[in-house]
Amino acid sequence: MPFSTPKSAFWAGFRDALPFIVVAGPFAILFGVLATEAGLNVFETLAFSVVVIAGAAQFAALQLMEENAPTIIILASALAVNLRMAMYSASITPHLGAVPFWWRALAAYFLVDQAYALSIAKYEDEPELPLNQKLAYFFGTVAPVCPLWYVFTLVGAVIGKQIPTSWNIEFIMPLAFLAMIGPLLRTPAHMAAAATGLTVSLLAAGLPYNLGLLLGGCAGMVAGARTEVFMEGRAK
Amino acid sequence: MTGTLQLWIIIIGLGLGSFLIRFLFLGFVGDRPLPPWLLRHLRYTAVAILPALVAPLVVWPAGNDGVPHPSYMIAAAAAFLLGYFTKNVALAVAGGALSLYVLLTVF
């Protein structure tokens, strides 16, 4: 059902994204803590989160910097982690492609995992939503998550080394993505895509530069598309 | 550890690169219609890439120095099943985190 106004669409997105505060908060704190431990000062750590705004890639870059990897390898690896966002960009374009240029640029900057996952699920659920409500919903999902990412990076940077590693808070990240996968598995094609992505990424985990992730994602995508074609053929 | 100049090259390079990746289709393609075969593949991007992102983190958890550990796999399964059956992401994360805490305390 469409929302009555863009404002109500914004607040619906905001509410749907609230659970991610529990996820993004500790994760941002962890990045702040690890970055300062790696020798970055508070300003550099905050700048990292504001400029890059991509958790997994930031951690990957940090890890490689500590290993004294060459700059070009650090950039290539961390960007490889982010290549999945090209797929986000492509898959959200049919829904948001018609909004004005600067809104698209702003949306691209904020196209983080959580905003993408919530928005695409909403758009696929309710394709009849008007364009301005789709855009408002997107920024609604961004509003609680992204500012929090900056603020809690700062908190983490200031806290420094106070958090013991035995707390395992970094495992909250995979848990969050796992929780998001369940509701996405609506058809056999979705399940085939997920199972293939999982299997291929594990088999290819030894590949350098996070290529296993990209390979798994592409293989899963093809498996989902082929399964869809197969199921349509059987239904006829 | 990395020098200051190298650090800023990484921050700015990563920021620009990440933006361009996110902007690629949204910015340059706009509302021109995309071919059906492309859309059919894009429908499965999230559901393919998220398990691919998660699987290695579960099998080789950083919290256990990258060594496989049943507690992480059980907690991951708990989070996934809670999400699948309840569709409640927050509940699933909390359930997974709680089961990991309990499992790591017990074993």
From TrEMBL, chain A:
Q: Where does the protein end up?
A: Cell membrane
Q: Does the keyword ATP-binding apply?
A: no
One GO CC annotation: plasma membrane
Record-linked InterPro entries:
Brnchd-chn_aa_trnsp_permease (IPR011606)
Provide the topology term for how it sits in the membrane: Multi-pass membrane protein
Which BP terms from GO are recorded? L-valine transmembrane transport
Species of origin reads Aliishimia ponticola
Protein name stated in the entry: Branched-chain amino acid ABC transporter permease
Alphabetized UniProt keyword annotations: Cell membrane, Membrane, Transmembrane, Transmembrane helix, Transport
So what family is this one in? Belongs to the AzlC family.
Q: Record keywords: Membrane included?
A: yes
Transmembrane domains' residue ranges: 17-34, 46-65, 71-89, 101-123, 135-160, 167-185
Automatic annotation (TrEMBL), chain B:
Going by the UniProt record, its keywords in alphabetical order are: Membrane, Transmembrane, Transmembrane helix
One Pfam family, short name: AzlD
Fetch the InterPro entries from UniProt: Brnchd-chn_aa_trnsp_AzlD
Q: Which domain of life is it from?
A: Bacteria
Entry's transmembrane regions: 6-29, 41-60, 72-104
**Protein name stated in the entry:** AzlD domain-containing protein
